[in-house]
Structure formats: C-alpha cells, structure tokens
Write a structure and sequence with these properties.
transmembrane helix, transmembrane, globular, membrane, 14 helices, 318 residues
C-alpha cells in the first residue's frame, strides 16, 4: 500500500509543479514546500524515534545539515528549474533513472556489491536517456535536461548518505530532519538574495531566479489546491510513504516506484497537460523500463526464494 501511494503521488509531482511553476519563483517554491513537508512529518518522526528509543544527537546535526543541503537545497532546486524549463514528462522519465545512480554511489561510498544485472541496468538506462535527449535532433531544452540529471545525481547521493542514519533514527525521521535543514538553508539564501549587491550580481549574470527571492507572493485562490497537494500530499505524505515502504519491505521492492513512475507520469502528462510524446521518448521509456526490470526483478525473485526456503525450513522443524 505504501508503494502504491508513493507511486501515485510521485507520478503526479511534475504535473502539479508544472501547473503552478509560473506563479512562484523556483527557489521560493522549493523552500516553502519542503518547509511545509518537514513540519508535516514532525509528529511521525517523533513517534518513530519514541518507538526506537532514540533522540537526535547533537553530533548528527551537521550530518542532517549536509543531507538537507544535498537533497533539498541543491537537488530539488535543480529539479524545480528543470520543471520550469522543459516538459514535465521528460523530467519525470529522467528522474526515474535514480536507482541506477544510487547503485553507483552505494558501490563507491557503502562498498555494496555491483552485479552484472546492475551494470546492465545502468547501460540500458543511459542509452534510454540518450534516446530521449536525441542529440542529433534536439527538440527539448538542453538546459532542462542538464538540470534534471544534476538533480538526479545529487538526489541519489542524498539517498545513499541518508541510508547511514535510517537504521538508527528511521527513514521518516531522517527525511523530516533533512527537509527542515534544507528548507532553513534555502531560507537563509533567500535572505541573502535581497542584499542589493548580491541581487545585482545574480541578475547581471543571467541568474535572476536567485535574486530577490520572494517569501509570500504568488499564492491565490486559484492555485491553493495545487499548493496544498504539493506541500502536504506529495512532499509530506509522498516521501513519508516512500521511506516507510523502504523500512517495511526491501530496497528492491521499493524501487518498483521508479519502475511504474515513468509510464504513469507520461500517460498523465499526455491527458492532463496535453504534452506531445514523441517516438524517441517512447523508445527511451522502454529502454529505461528494461533497465529497471533488469535491476529489480532478479532481486525480487531472490527475496521470494529466500522467504520460501525459510518457510520450508520452519515447516520441516515443526
């Protein structure tokens, strides 16, 4: 159930953000939605830590600050810039390659084993990305693609590093703390952006989105429904469901979210945003799905066999 909830919420994320992208500064939207999401997760995080009998240690605050910087301040800022700059369906599909990048960082930082199926998955997903980009006949914004890939890379690093503390505090608590730290870091940056000299430098170098970042403008009765859905639904409940699924099942099972997301998100953007889905994008989706299948399916089969062996062993003992 948590996987289903996460899949639906994450598959509608790009559509909802696209609907209100013109009403808000990208930095403002990222800052406020993760602040609201973090506040929403506080009672769930407290409950999780009470069950585990742990409290946030002062020495871990720097780690959460780094995690928030990577996962929110950097990754989600690039993500929002990508949503503003290119088709929502393109961002949704490319972001679904996240598990492949997670494997790379997990091997480098956590020394997890990389198997043949992992390599096959990475190759297929990279080919899928190239097919979607279609470098010989580029029809989508290059900057949007670059922003998306930078967002995927930093989010994958965020996920791998966050895993170190999930065993201690629980996934929801780690998510909550990283959201709050990331949001406050962006709030500090937003304050700096109002310094005249800084704002003039940003605007003068074509980075006006980082100058005079607003705090409270853009909200209206027309977009308040989307705002609440994004802030509380997608950012709060979506990420809480994702990390709860990670705790209750395996990483391979939870990765099914990124298997179904590109298909569901593409279908939804076609019917809701009326975005045209070119043939090269369909081919890219098929390749990325094949890569996901190569990565996820063997792990699920191995897990099922292991459970069956345990069950058979218990039955024999009885």
């Amino acid at each position: 159930m948590y996987i289903v909830i996460s899949t639906i919420l994450f598959s509608t994320m790009e559509i909802a953000l696209k609907e209100i992208a013109g009403d808000f500064n990208p930095m403002q939207l990222t800052m406020t939605r993760f602040l609201a999401g973090g506040i929403f997760l506080i009672p769930f995080a407290v409950n999780t830590m009470k069950k585990r009998g742990v409290r946030i240690e002062v020495k871990d605050l720097r780690f959460f600050a780094l995690l928030g910087f990577l996962g929110v301040a950097v990754s989600m800022t690039f993500y929002q810039l990508a949503i503003t700059d290119t088709n929502a369906s393109v961002v949704a599909v490319l972001f679904s390659c996240n598990p492949a990048f997670v494997m790379v960082f997990a091997a480098l930082l956590l020394h997890e084993a990389v198997r043949r199926r992992n390599v096959a998955a990475i190759i297929l997903e990279i080919i899928g990305i190239i097919v979607i980009i279609n470098p010989f006949h580029v029809q989508i914004g290059v900057s949007g693609i670059v922003f998306t890939l930078l967002s995927v890379l930093t989010f994958a690093l965020y996920g791998v590093l966050g895993k170190r503390k999930c065993a201690k505090y629980g996934g929801v608590a780690v998510t909550c703390m990283s959201f709050l730290f990331g949001a406050f870091e962006l709030l500090a940056f937003a304050g700096i952006s109002h310094i005249p000299a800084f704002a003039a430098t940003m605007a003068g170098n074509g980075l006006g989105v980082f100058a005079d970042i607003p705090f409270f403008t853009g909200y209206s009765m027309e977009n308040i429904g989307f705002v609440l859905y994004i802030f509380i639904g997608i950012t709060g409940a979506g990420f809480a469901s994702y990390f709860t699924a990670m705790e209750k099942t395996s990483a391979n099972s939870t990765s099914l979210i990124f298997f179904f997301k590109p298909v569901l998100a593409t279908v939804l953007t076609f019917f809701i945003l009326h975005e045209v889905i070119p043939c090269n994008m369909v081919a890219g989706i098929v390749l990325i799905l094949a890569g996901s299948m190569a990565n996820i399916l063997p792990g699920l089969i191995e897990s099922r066999k292991a459970k069956n062996r345990i069950g058979a062993g218990a039955g024999a003992e009885t």
